[in-house]
Amino acid sequence: MDFVKSLMNFESVNKKTERLKRKVEVLESKEADIAEEFEEVDSLGLKKRKREVSTWLGHVGNLKDKVQQKEEKVRARGWVISNIIDLFQNDFDRLENEATELLQTGNFAEGHAVEADEGAGVSLLTTDLVGQDFETNKNMICQWLRSDESLIVGVYGLGGVGKTTLLTHINNQLQNLPDIFVYWVTASQQCSNFELRNRIAKKVGLDLSKYGEEKEKAAKLARTLGRRRGIVLILDDVWDCFPADVVGIPIGVNGFKLILSTRSLELCRKMNCQNTIKVEPLSDKEAWELFLEKLRRETLLPPQIEVIARSLVRNCDGLPLGIITMAGCMKRVDDICEWRNALEGMEESKAAKEDMETEVFRVLRYSYDNLKDTTVQQCFLYCSLFPEDYEIERDKLIEYLIDERLIDGRKSRQAKFDTGHTILNKLENVCLLEGGKFTWVNRRYVKMHDLTRDMAIQITSTSPRFLVLAGVGLEDIPDDEIWTEDLVRVSLMRNYSLSLPSNASPRCPRLLTLLLNGNKIERIPDCFFMHMNELTVLDLSFNQNIARLPSSISNLRNLTALLLVRCENLEYVPYLGHLTSLRRLDISYTGVAEVPQGIEMLVNLRYLNLLGTSIEKITSETLSKLCHLEYLKLLNNKVKVRAEEVSSLRKLDTFTGHFYDTVDFNTYIEFFRYELIESTERNVYLKECSISKSNGDSLVLPKEIQSLFIDECDELTCLCDASLGNAIHLKVYRIYSCKGMKHLFCSSCFGLPFLRTLQVLDLYLLHNLNDLMEGGISITRTPSNCIFRSLKEFRVYGCHNMKRLFMPSLLSHLQNLEILSVCDCEQMEEIIGEASNEDVDQEATKIIVLNNLPNLKHLTLERLQKLKNFCSTSIVCSNSLQQISVLKCLKLRRMPLLCEEPNPFPSLQRIFAEEEWWESLQWDHPQTKDLYQPLCQFLERV
After folding, report:
1. Residue pair 342/370 in contact by the 8 Å Cβ criterion
2. How far apart are CA 361 and CA 316, in angstroms?
3. Strand-strand pairing, 732-736 and 631-633
4. Sign (positive/negative) of CA torsion 396, 400, 405, 409?
5. Would you give the DSSP letter of residue 876?
6. Which end of the chain has fewer CB atoms at under 10 Å, N or C?
7. How many whole angstroms separate alpha carbon 573 and alpha carbon 552?
8. Which residues lie below 8 Å from residue 83, measured CB to CB, with a gap of 6+?
9. Model confidence over 26-76: pLDDT tens digits?
10. Distance (Å, whole) CA 574 – CA 585
């Protein structure tokens, strides 16, 4: 019987192994295509890799290594069934979950890299130039750049005088000139030659890690920069001289020019600048006009207040940063007493002759003091713990502020985040922080101007005392004398290769915060935390080489946050039962295989993230004791929970995890129906569930659901077969490996309300899918009946039975489609089919085709071996089309999208293809090919 049971378990493991292999094969295909693209463009230095794509490739590589290691262990043990089960059963679901997540996140709609000329020509956000001198300076610099004699231009002046603003305008003006490619790099303080070279290489998309010697790296960078004519490199905020050849800057080669900004004329001279220009402070008149502009009053200032205001502005010494900051402080201030108080504070500061680097420090310090709220001040100072010029994601910063108890922990999670955003908004409004939004993801960030950060670091050099050496290329921790006993916060984050000596034991009895994340630390000595008994926040995230934590962590009884994100080799976490003050524990994406011992004792825990670990079980008794949890992530097939276990956590705001069945899921949704927070995204993942209506089990989805992912629900036959009626606001729908699905739509599906709100539709590995529409169905479009009116992204991967993607009648409902991607469909012969004989008016259908896809921006066709035709008739994409990618589609001979007109699409920027395919294309007018040829980026065919 044991053998039979083992054999059944083996069959289960074998089935899972095949599923994992299929997913890894898809990942390898995507990885190979991206690698081909990068290999080609790296050699030319024409592209800058996107950070998110590089990170994704790294995670794919890590997953492949883990799978390979498991297979090697099986082979080493002789293929004994029980051994296979022991090795694979425990880890398989974690590996498959990782593969599924990578497939979800591996759709890079905007491409894998930024073109060098695009990256170089990005318009930077800036403020208007103020003063006649600024316009004169800008024109003078542009004139110098047109001269062959002027190779290095130096811009110098006081901190806060507007050097960066001036260079930003020059950057934006140069990008409009033909054949000029501008790269912007911020040097900043403590930037070594090595770090400067890496920053420039990263900007141009060059990976120097494959080159050993420093001279070799510099030579490679110089060759890349010198290959293209008309490159202008802008180095902002240079503090130290550097040899251009040592860094790899090819001054004068192929017209290469350098512009640098600094606070020192002497540095300009040492750098052999042929031309220098000093940015002078504003005149009194210009300063007053800038102040009034930023004050934004609807009425004139009363005469008595105006006298005081003019004195305030004069105290800013004509420095725009100070004037703007002061105006931010005095917005909506009408009481003359407050104006007098501000002036008195400024004059007292000036009389004190504080040892500041520039006069603008007084203004910044006044703005800081004028906050008055100590919590807001502490939040501002906290931002200085991050590296210079670092874009700090708002939500992550707020998590830190919650950990530090700078935000009231008694509030709900949403209320705490609302408080955090309110604080950051206030700091932005008084110009102590700058705000922005990441381009690759819809998230906001804040950052500090370098002078503002300098001021914050100066404040924290006394009380409260900080030690900040973040992102400066540190290899060894500071000497013992630097770790003074009055230190409160220490940040050594993002130094990338930091090592801790075996006897390191800093004596910091008052230390509250220690940020060591992003350092590739391999080992932490047990004595390291011996003298840090007051420590509350410890961040060791992104130290992939740490295998175990020292047992001394168990004694940090005041710890409120322990962060170990992406410590991928971490397997051992010591006993945590003594850490009863702990509120946030994040061990996501680590090698931890068991719930840390003592976790049930953490009665104050608010945040627990076990995502991407090998943990197989967390008991209901443990969950019931964590009654204050607000945030819980347990996404692992092995860790399944009952609805009553989760519903007992009355304060839970965010939950990611697996239920045993649809009954538990429905119970959970029903329980939280009246407690859902509108601003919280609702994402549901259903795997191996019986969700078909034919089973009699009605699936209850929250009305607020925004994203639905269905994986291996084999009984599902079409969209309306699942109980999705409640999903009236669904935006993202991904269907993966559902064997029962032969068509996506039947005649009953078109009444589903979410079809009109859906923005993203992805179909993965639906091997039995024959058509999108059930046979014989045709849908007409009227102004009031546009079914997919919101759909922007449609992807089809690995649907091997499909021969044709669209019929024209369905295409007419996709007028807002922006991204269309079809890959790895073995039988796909045509993307848009011909109108059938049953169509009432075939001529009308052709007109529909001609006038649709008006918003299509990105088209991807990859590994479609039998694809012969894109569309049987002409098709128009208006002027929206930006990028076409066609790889391994050698039977495709015509591309109707590439219109046969005198001028190509004005919006089209790139065509990624294999040269063999491009040369084989057939054209009605041969000259059309010549028009599109400059847009082609040819990739090697493997």
Report:
1. yes
2. 9
3. unpaired
4. positive
5. -
6. N
7. 11
8. 74, 77
9. 777 777 667 655 554 444 444 555 656 766 777 777 777 777 766 655 554
10. 13
